[in-house]
Specification:
507 residues, 17% strand, Rossmann fold, 18 helices, alpha/beta, single chain
């Protein structure tokens, strides 16, 4: 590692190659790898869940770490260390001893606690969210700081970077409960989704080692309850969001979810940096999950073959424009908006392929739609990342009808594979999709005028019109595939922020 490189403690409840439920894990892993390439010395700390895919090269630290919590309680944690390998490299062999760490590859430390983490779910199971999540993720936050005290041979990190509320207490603990040396370490909180804030009753204060003055002074109190996200926003040196537009939106109702005033008060520390995607793993030229590999030069032939294979897999006819939807099935994702206009679009010749899980009513509605329009609508109620890749490759359009979308990754994956995004004008969708201008042959997708059913219908009708213009449509596909959605530029922005914090605030 280069002399003077920035030491970054990355704390997250998800890491894509280990355990994840959505875009948080994708972003944390890809950003960490991109920072490693730029020379940062990154250590990622995350729990070892029952569903974690533990790499064969992981090695157990010879000594446990201890996570101090509230009411004199300390949690003893085992630590498994591995690293985030280059996704383009050959698979690691099954040998028991760990190979030397690849140059620039971030280290990953998995916190081992059978009672708290070894469950068949990250946040919950089929019965609902785990009731002890406040304590589970407080243990992650405190344990991550304890790992950092050993990870650099006694030196502390130059910056603590916590992701979403699950890791947010690491910011508070570093600043308020772990002593003077930790209090001088700069902290960054990234908000991936403000809809989830870590809200608990005040009876949890002492149990979670939250200083009483943080509650009494209002720093972590909101509407009579503990709000972990609010408290971390208050004490962090920088608060980043996963797109520029989202940083503006969350300062206004309804996207602020009750914290819009608090965020306006802290606007001087707020910075939007748009997410990227892993362009090595997600590459139609090398992706073994799709029916035929292709690049920009042979995209029409490649996508045609992938479309025919996808339609055969899902039982769809391939003689019309095919729209894909890869999403969590939730109200904020706007799936109900799309279901409302589905009859009109099917009547106009559109075909639809849905994949996702979530709200039971929406899952049922998708099954009903597939039964009502066999051969024209297909639904797979499942979390299926491999099928998602085939949808990116095999569809003509990918619809993202969100009411709220901090960044969104599917629209960038879609463009990478030549599926044209049809999106609402919110959050990162506005930042990453350039509206099509047919007259000037510019743009990479179709942006609805608003997040409502009528605007979405008009946007989808525009898509149908573009699909019928084969030459213009092929040009649009080529522009979408050429868009740079990598982490390169965004990782440099994060690194510059770390270096500035280290210079201004660091020990």
């Amino acid at each position: 590692m280069a002399s003077g490189s920035v030491r970054v403690l990355m704390v997250s409840s998800e890491v894509e190659s280990l355990a994840r439920t959505g875009g948080l894990g994708d972003a944390v892993e890809a950003l960490s790898r991109a920072l490693g390439v730029l020379g940062a010395d990154v250590v990622v700390v995350t729990p070892k869940y029952g569903v974690t895919r533990v790499p064969a090269d992981a090695r157990l630290w010879p000594r446990s770490v201890f996570a101090p919590l509230g009411l004199g309680h300390t949690r003893e944690l085992g630590v498994l260390e591995t690293h985030l390998a280059d996704p383009s490299a050959a698979p690691v062999s099954s040998r028991r001893s760990a190979p030397p760490k690849a140059s620039g590859a971030p280290r990953v430390c998995l916190l081992c606690d059978g009672e708290l983490f070894e469950r068949d779910g990250i946040y919950g199971d089929r019965r609902g969210a785990f009731t002890d999540n406040p304590f589970r993720f407080a243990t992650l936050a405190s344990g991550a700081l304890s790992v950092a005290e050993r990870a650099w041979d006694g030196a502390l990190p130059d910056v603590v970077h916590a992701h979403d509320w699950h890791a947010a207490l690491a910011v508070l603990y570093a600043r308020r409960t772990r002593g003077a040396a930790w209090a001088r370490v700069p902290t960054v909180l990234t908000i991936h989704n403000l809809a989830f804030q870590g809200v608990f009753p005040s009876s949890e204060l002492d149990y979670l080692a939250i200083p009483r003055d943080a509650w009494d002074g209002g720093s972590i109190r909101h509407d009579g309850a503990v709000n972990v996200m609010k408290g971390a926003i208050d004490v962090a040196d920088r608060v980043t969001t996963v797109s520029e537009n989202y940083a503006r939106e969350i300062q206004r109702w309804p996207h602020g979810f009750g914290l819009e005033g608090h965020l306006r008060w802290n606007s001087s520390k707020l910075l939007g940096i748009v997410n990227g995607i892993d362009t090595v793993s997600f590459d139609p030229k090398t992706d073994g999950a799709i029916a035929r590999r292709y690049g920009a030069a042979d995209a029409p032939q490649g996508k045609r073959a992938c479309k025919e294979a996808l339609c055969a897999e899902l039982g769809l006819s391939s003689d019309g424009p095919l729209f894909g939807v890869v999403s969590r099935l939730q109200w904020l994702k706007g799936i109900d908006l799309l279901l409302g206009i589905l009859p009109a679009l099917v009547e106009r010749g559109a075909r639809f392929a849905f994949v996702g899980t979530g709200d039971a009513d929406l899952e049922g509605a998708l099954r009903e739609a597939a039964a009502r329009w066999p051969g024209r609508v297909a639904s797979r109620v499942a979390f299926d990342p491999t099928l998602a890749r085939r949808i990116f490759a095999g569809t003509d359009f990918l619809v993202v009808p969100s009411r709220d979308e901090p960044c969104g990754l599917t629209q960038m994956y879609a463009m990478r594979y030549g599926a044209i995004p049809v999106v609402t004008p919110v959050g990162g969708l506005r930042d990453t999709v350039e509206p099509v201008d047919v007259a000037h042959a510019t743009g990479t997708g179709i942006v609805a005028a608003a997040s409502d059913a009528s605007s979405l219908l008009l946007a989808c009708e525009d898509a149908l019109g573009l699909w019928r213009e084969s030459i213009g449509f092929e040009s649009l596909v080529a522009r979408a595939m050429a868009r740079d959605s990598s982490w390169d530029d965004s990782a440099r922005k994060y690194l510059s922020m770390y270096e500035a914090l280290r210079g201004k605030l660091g020990p």
